Amino acid sequence: MNRIRLLLSVLLLVSCPSFAADPPLRFSIADGWSMPLVLIDDEKPHGGFLFDIMESLGHHMGLPTEYHVLARLRVQSALEHGDVDIRCYAAQSWVPNMSGDYIWSLPLITQRDLLVSTADNPTPVDLKQLTHQNIGTVLGYVYPSLQTLFDSHQLVREDARSQDQVLQKLIAGRYRYAVANQWSMDWFNRNLPPDKQLRGVSLIEEQAVGCVVRNDPNVPVQRILRTLLRMKMSGEIEQILERYGPPAPVVIGQPEPLPSP
Fold first, then answer.
1. Tally of structural domains, the chain
2. Cα dihedral across residues 126, 128, 129, 132: positive or negative
3. Containing domain of residue 122, as a range?
4. CB burial class (10 A; 0-12, 13-18, 19+) of residue 124?
5. Mean pLDDT along residues 136-155
6. Is a pLDDT exceeding 70 seen at residue 254?
7. Are residues 170 and 56 in the same domain?
8. Burial 18-52 (b: 16+ CB within 10 A, else e)
9. What spatial distance separates the first Cα and last Cα of the chain, rounded to whole Å?
């Protein structure tokens, strides 16, 4: 009788299908991001429009999401070594020397990078006229339109770990100007009275950004790209952005060509 029960148990196990858990979508999160891009608490993202976009991508695909919060300078190496599969909020000009096989999504959002100053220094600025100025920047961030000025030491980077820290140092008077995207500046201004709010004094660059996916047989690359396309075409991406307040129109004019090195 015991042998019969054992045989029945084995047959039951063999006949029942076994389902392996679907592998998660593994995203990189730069630790220098701040709201409204992402809220990082205890080394985990909890909110922000980038987090919402990533979560929605996983939901549409029916796959779990996994987030790796990394120093900005480690993000690309994590992608190259297969520790993460998707890097969102990226532009090809930021990573011109990528090694490996990757596929870019369509542009999802447009980022406006501004030269920002305090309320008592709101005069529009011609970047070419600034000399020997310390500029607040985020550690590890690439600013292609300013690189020639940094290389010539006409402008000097003063790095902080996050965008929020860059703006805090600007308010504290550590330097007269900083670089910030308009979303971050507008979010930062929410906690300041109108007469203390930061001002954009020059439009540095408008940059289309999207996601880059590691082209690996174990990664559902085409499904990811098609899902992001549907999210963009349906207006879902814009709806997510609007939950965090659409950036105000830039009225300081278009960026002027920067000098050649």
1. 2
2. positive
3. 111-206
4. middle
5. 91
6. no
7. no
8. eeeeeeebbbbbbbbbbbbbbebeeeebebbbbbb
9. 88
